[in-house]
Design goal:
Number of domains: 3
Order of helices and strands: HHHHEEEHEEEHHHEHEHEHEEHHEE
Largest sheet: 6 strands, antiparallel
Number of helices: 13
Strand content: 15-25%
Number of strands: 13
Length: 558
């Protein structure tokens, strides 16, 4: 038995705890959305720059290869013309350098692209090895020639400003390439990479080539420079992008903070509903994702706040209703108990005591019946839908009022018709006769109890609208020229246990505060409504004050 209290406390705390709390890992991941977006942006920029770098390097490589092939074609054409001289004639000493020869050399350097440099040493004697064309003016660093005539092979390459003869392995590697007049890349041991072009002249095989070392260095330098620039761009884009993403995500953080502030409220234990925090309206503007989320959250908060406010008001009315009903039932019970005790002691007149006991019992029975009727109407129980003529009910209500309140002036206001008039048929509705009689009785009693003696009360039945195609409506009205309803009671006049004096003391008039509430509930159950029009003394000209209650119900069709 002692463990039940802790268990109840744990159950209550569990009920108040969030039911859908997210795991810590997911919450941490959601906080890294800015980082993940920044990384994605950096990856996208890096991919774009790498693609551009590869494309530019490929374009540069293709352009340089094309320039080298053009130079090789020119060199191969000259070699075909001078092949006989390269094989037979000794190499003459080079002429002294002149301005013209230097210009020719510059022109030749331009033809050979970025791989050309100064001519090799021309001080070699005629008996040195190598093709004659490599020792004359115009040759450049990395230039290669090979001439094969039957079994005789003459080859050489300009290396460090001197002509070096190719070894047998290099010669065989070059001669193994297709001789189709197109450029081919080949890597020669001890000599490096070359672009080779081979041609045929009579029975001779002619090969020219240029070293790719300078081109490769240029390409590597270009890629390195572009890589550095790409890294700088990626870093800058990541930094700026992260700052921009954070700035754009700040409103979403405010939306989350608003939701968290509401989630931490204990709405179960709070007796009153406080205004919830809302997302700033400058952010919660439809048009973008964050604005849509903020607007939707504010709309949800409005709905929840309205529902909680309605619940709080309903609970307050329920507490007030229970307190009033308890008091209303306790008062007659206390009277009955008191008179019973007096009878037991023989201290009271028996006839008077029994009369008071009967009176209080009848009042308590009526109160219970009223409460049961309201409970049935609140539960949605439908009333009978029998044809009921309201004119006889109005006549009976006025007759009863004359007997109960002879100090008031009672007037009956009915439609004027003769034997051939059919207006009386229009005063028939579909409803429950006993409930409609109670409507008249409650309205008449309300006017009798809450107006002074001599007040003129008019009970009427009128037809509103209607015609050949529509049955229209019937209005049941009770109007008096009394003091009117005070402004502070007008908004709650149809609430339960609401009385003109606001206290629970009825001063013997027999009002329980349920009459108008029953009238409103019956009217709604029959598909109608209740209107009230009241003017207090001092709010209008003398003689124009008073209150009119109108119950408007749909008339019964033909």
């Amino acid at each position: 038995m002692t463990s039940s209290a802790p268990q109840a406390s744990n159950t209550e705390s569990q009920a108040r705890a969030p039911k859908h709390s997210a795991p810590q890992t997911k919450r941490k991941r959601s906080r890294l959305l800015t980082v993940r977006l920044s990384r994605f942006l950096a990856a996208a920029v890096a991919l774009a720059l790498v693609t551009m770098l590869a494309a530019s390097a490929l374009a540069m490589h293709s352009w340089m290869t094309s320039k080298i092939d053009s130079s090789l074609e020119s060199m191969l054409s000259r070699l075909e013309k001078n092949a006989e001289l390269s094989l037979q004639q000794p190499v003459p000493p080079p002429p002294p350098p002149t301005a013209g020869s230097q210009d020719d050399q510059d022109d030749h350097d331009d033809d050979h692209g970025p791989s050309q440099s100064n001519s090799p040493s021309s001080s070699a004697s005629p008996g040195e090895h190598g093709p004659r064309g490599l020792r004359g003016p115009g040759s450049s660093e990395g230039q290669l020639q090979l001439i094969k005539d039957d079994d005789e092979i003459v080859s050489g390459v300009v290396k460090q400003f001197d002509v070096v003869e190719l070894d047998t392995a290099a010669q065989q590697q070059i001669l193994s390439l297709r001789c189709d007049g197109h450029g081919h890349n080949v890597s020669l041991t001890n000599f490096g990479s070359f672009r080779i072009m081979c041609g045929q002249s009579d029975s001779r095989t002619l090969v020219v080539g240029l070293s790719l070392a300078a081109n490769n260095s240029t390409l590597i330098m270009l890629v390195a420079l572009e890589s550095v620039i790409a890294l700088v761009v990626i870093a800058g884009a990541t930094f700026i992008g992260r700052k921009w993403i954070r700035r754009e995500m700040l409103p979403l953080g405010e939306v989350a903070a608003t939701a968290r502030s509401i989630g931490t409220k204990d709405l179960i234990a709070t007796p009153t509903v406080e205004d919830f925090q809302r997302v700033d309206y400058s952010i919660a503007q439809p048009g973008d994702e964050v604005g849509d989320v903020g607007y939707a959250l504010n709309t949800m908060i409005d709905n929840v706040e309205t529902a909680l406010q309605a619940r709080a008001e309903s609970e307050q009315r329920l507490r007030q209703f229970v307190a009033d009903a308890s008091h209303e039932l306790r008062t007659p019970l206390a009277s009955i108990q008191g008179y019973t005790q007096l009878l037991q002691k023989g201290s009271a007149d028996e006839e008077l005591a029994l009369a008071r006991i009967a009176s209080e019992s009848a009042r308590m029975s009526g109160l219970v019946e009223d409460l049961l009727l309201l409970a049935r109407l609140d539960a949605g129980r439908e009333l009978a839908s029998d044809p009921v003529d309201l004119i006889p009910l109005a006549i009976d209500a006025v007759s009863d009022a004359h007997a109960a309140g002879p100090d008031h002036e009672w007037v009956l206001d009915l439609p004027q018709f003769d034997d051939e008039d059919e207006d009386c048929v229009s005063c028939t509705i579909a409803g429950d006769e006993s409930a409609l009689r109670q409507v008249f009785a409650n309205l008449v009693n309300n006017a009798r109890i809450h107006t002074p003696a001599g007040t003129r009360v008019k009970v009427g039945v009128q037809v509103i609208g209607g015609g050949a195609s529509a049955p229209g409506f019937v209005r049941m009205s009770v109007a008096d020229d009394g003091p009117g309803i005070p402004p502070e009671l007008r908004a709650t006049v149809f609430d339960r246990f609401v009385r003109g004096d606001t206290s629970r003391s009825r001063q013997g008039k027999g009002s329980s505060g349920l009459g108008l509430s029953i009238v409103s509930s019956i009217a709604e159950a029959l598909g109608g409504r209740v209107d009230v029009d009241t003017v207090c003394e001092g709010e209008a000209k003398p003689g124009e004050h008073g209150t009119t209650f109108s119950v408007i119900l749909p008339a019964l069709g033909e």
